[in-house]
Design brief:
By secondary structure, the chain is mainly α. It has two domains: 31 residues; 128 residues, Tetratricopeptide repeat domain (Serine Threonine Protein Phosphatase 5, Tetratricopeptide repeat, Alpha Horseshoe). Helices cover 81% and strands 0% of the residues. InterPro entries: TPR-like_helical_dom_sf, TPR_rpt. This is Tetratricopeptide repeat protein. Keywords: TPR repeat. It holds the Pfam family TPR_1.
Length: 165
Protein backbone atom coordinates (compact mmCIF):
# COMPACT_ATOMS: atom_id res chain seq x y z
CA UNK A 1 0.00 0.00 0.00
CA UNK A 2 2.75 2.51 0.96
CA UNK A 3 4.75 1.64 -2.16
CA UNK A 4 1.79 2.36 -4.42
CA UNK A 5 1.12 5.65 -2.66
CA UNK A 6 4.74 6.75 -3.07
CA UNK A 7 4.69 5.71 -6.73
CA UNK A 8 1.57 7.81 -7.35
CA UNK A 9 3.11 10.85 -5.62
CA UNK A 10 6.33 10.42 -7.58
CA UNK A 11 4.36 10.22 -10.83
CA UNK A 12 2.45 13.42 -10.01
CA UNK A 13 5.69 15.24 -9.17
CA UNK A 14 7.39 14.15 -12.39
CA UNK A 15 4.33 15.19 -14.41
CA UNK A 16 4.23 18.55 -12.65
CA UNK A 17 7.92 19.18 -13.37
CA UNK A 18 7.43 18.30 -17.04
CA UNK A 19 4.52 20.75 -17.33
CA UNK A 20 6.56 23.52 -15.66
CA UNK A 21 9.50 22.82 -17.98
CA UNK A 22 7.30 23.07 -21.08
CA UNK A 23 5.70 26.32 -19.80
CA UNK A 24 9.07 27.97 -19.11
CA UNK A 25 10.47 26.80 -22.46
CA UNK A 26 7.47 28.28 -24.28
CA UNK A 27 7.76 31.62 -22.46
CA UNK A 28 11.46 31.84 -23.31
CA UNK A 29 10.80 31.06 -26.94
CA UNK A 30 8.08 33.70 -27.14
CA UNK A 31 10.33 36.47 -25.75
CA UNK A 32 12.12 38.55 -28.38
CA UNK A 33 15.80 37.80 -28.75
CA UNK A 34 18.03 40.50 -27.26
CA UNK A 35 20.26 40.15 -30.31
CA UNK A 36 17.41 41.65 -32.32
CA UNK A 37 17.40 44.88 -30.28
CA UNK A 38 18.63 47.95 -32.09
CA UNK A 39 21.24 50.18 -30.53
CA UNK A 40 18.52 52.71 -29.69
CA UNK A 41 16.44 50.02 -27.94
CA UNK A 42 19.49 48.87 -25.97
CA UNK A 43 20.15 52.49 -24.93
CA UNK A 44 16.51 52.86 -23.87
CA UNK A 45 16.63 49.65 -21.81
CA UNK A 46 20.00 50.50 -20.24
CA UNK A 47 18.83 54.00 -19.31
CA UNK A 48 15.55 52.72 -17.95
CA UNK A 49 17.27 50.20 -15.67
CA UNK A 50 19.88 52.82 -14.71
CA UNK A 51 17.17 55.31 -13.67
CA UNK A 52 15.43 52.59 -11.66
CA UNK A 53 18.77 51.81 -9.94
CA UNK A 54 18.51 48.23 -11.23
CA UNK A 55 22.25 47.90 -11.62
CA UNK A 56 22.39 44.22 -12.52
CA UNK A 57 20.19 44.71 -15.58
CA UNK A 58 21.77 48.04 -16.36
CA UNK A 59 25.24 46.44 -16.45
CA UNK A 60 23.90 43.78 -18.81
CA UNK A 61 22.62 46.30 -21.35
CA UNK A 62 25.48 48.77 -20.91
CA UNK A 63 27.92 45.92 -21.59
CA UNK A 64 26.09 45.13 -24.84
CA UNK A 65 26.30 48.80 -25.81
CA UNK A 66 30.01 48.95 -24.97
CA UNK A 67 30.57 45.96 -27.29
CA UNK A 68 28.91 47.99 -30.02
CA UNK A 69 30.74 51.24 -29.20
CA UNK A 70 33.75 50.92 -26.91
CA UNK A 71 34.54 54.63 -27.21
CA UNK A 72 31.34 55.90 -25.60
CA UNK A 73 32.47 57.32 -22.26
CA UNK A 74 28.91 57.73 -20.98
CA UNK A 75 28.15 54.00 -21.29
CA UNK A 76 31.43 53.11 -19.58
CA UNK A 77 30.98 55.70 -16.80
CA UNK A 78 27.43 54.51 -16.07
CA UNK A 79 28.56 50.88 -16.01
CA UNK A 80 31.33 51.88 -13.60
CA UNK A 81 28.72 53.41 -11.32
CA UNK A 82 26.57 50.29 -11.51
CA UNK A 83 29.51 47.99 -10.83
CA UNK A 84 30.26 50.00 -7.69
CA UNK A 85 26.61 49.69 -6.59
CA UNK A 86 26.80 45.89 -6.85
CA UNK A 87 30.18 45.81 -5.04
CA UNK A 88 32.28 44.96 -8.08
CA UNK A 89 34.77 47.66 -7.16
CA UNK A 90 37.66 46.45 -9.33
CA UNK A 91 35.44 46.37 -12.42
CA UNK A 92 34.05 49.77 -11.46
CA UNK A 93 37.54 51.24 -11.12
CA UNK A 94 38.57 49.89 -14.53
CA UNK A 95 35.50 51.45 -16.14
CA UNK A 96 36.11 54.81 -14.46
CA UNK A 97 39.73 54.77 -15.64
CA UNK A 98 38.54 54.04 -19.18
CA UNK A 99 35.91 56.83 -18.96
CA UNK A 100 38.63 59.27 -17.85
CA UNK A 101 40.87 58.15 -20.72
CA UNK A 102 37.96 58.90 -23.05
CA UNK A 103 37.69 62.32 -21.37
CA UNK A 104 34.18 61.69 -20.08
CA UNK A 105 33.46 63.33 -16.70
CA UNK A 106 37.13 63.01 -15.79
CA UNK A 107 36.98 64.68 -12.36
CA UNK A 108 33.94 62.61 -11.38
CA UNK A 109 35.64 59.44 -12.62
CA UNK A 110 38.74 60.14 -10.50
CA UNK A 111 36.63 61.06 -7.49
CA UNK A 112 34.64 57.82 -7.82
CA UNK A 113 37.84 55.79 -8.15
CA UNK A 114 38.96 57.41 -4.90
CA UNK A 115 35.68 56.36 -3.29
CA UNK A 116 36.17 52.81 -4.57
CA UNK A 117 39.60 52.67 -2.94
CA UNK A 118 38.15 54.11 0.26
CA UNK A 119 35.63 51.24 0.27
CA UNK A 120 38.58 48.85 -0.09
CA UNK A 121 40.36 50.51 2.86
CA UNK A 122 43.21 51.70 0.64
CA UNK A 123 43.44 55.36 1.60
CA UNK A 124 46.81 55.95 -0.06
CA UNK A 125 45.38 54.97 -3.46
CA UNK A 126 42.17 56.88 -2.69
CA UNK A 127 44.24 60.01 -2.04
CA UNK A 128 46.03 59.62 -5.37
CA UNK A 129 42.71 59.81 -7.24
CA UNK A 130 41.13 62.42 -4.99
CA UNK A 131 44.12 64.68 -5.72
CA UNK A 132 43.70 64.07 -9.47
CA UNK A 133 40.04 65.08 -9.16
CA UNK A 134 41.01 68.15 -7.11
CA UNK A 135 43.47 69.27 -9.82
CA UNK A 136 40.54 69.46 -12.22
CA UNK A 137 38.03 70.95 -9.74
CA UNK A 138 40.18 72.81 -7.18
CA UNK A 139 37.21 74.42 -5.44
CA UNK A 140 35.16 71.23 -4.97
CA UNK A 141 34.47 70.91 -1.24
CA UNK A 142 33.40 67.23 -1.41
CA UNK A 143 36.77 66.27 -2.85
CA UNK A 144 38.58 68.35 -0.22
CA UNK A 145 36.54 66.69 2.53
CA UNK A 146 37.40 63.20 1.23
CA UNK A 147 41.10 64.12 1.10
CA UNK A 148 40.98 65.35 4.68
CA UNK A 149 39.17 62.20 5.87
CA UNK A 150 41.61 59.88 4.05
CA UNK A 151 44.59 61.72 5.51
CA UNK A 152 43.09 61.46 8.99
CA UNK A 153 42.55 57.72 8.57
CA UNK A 154 46.14 57.29 7.35
CA UNK A 155 47.49 59.28 10.30
CA UNK A 156 45.29 57.30 12.67
CA UNK A 157 46.69 54.08 11.21
CA UNK A 158 50.23 55.42 11.70
CA UNK A 159 49.40 56.21 15.33
CA UNK A 160 48.10 52.67 15.88
CA UNK A 161 51.24 51.20 14.27
CA UNK A 162 53.45 53.24 16.60
CA UNK A 163 51.55 52.02 19.68
CA UNK A 164 51.76 48.36 18.64
CA UNK A 165 55.54 48.43 18.01
Amino acid sequence: MNGRFLLIILGVLVLGCEVKYKESKQSLESEPSEVAFSKEELIEKANSFYKEDDCLNSVKYLSKLIKIDSTNGEFIFKRGYCYARIDSLNASTLDYIKAAELEHRVADAYYNIGLNYTMQFDDSMALKYFFKALEINPKDQEISDEIKAAKERLNHDDDINEVTK
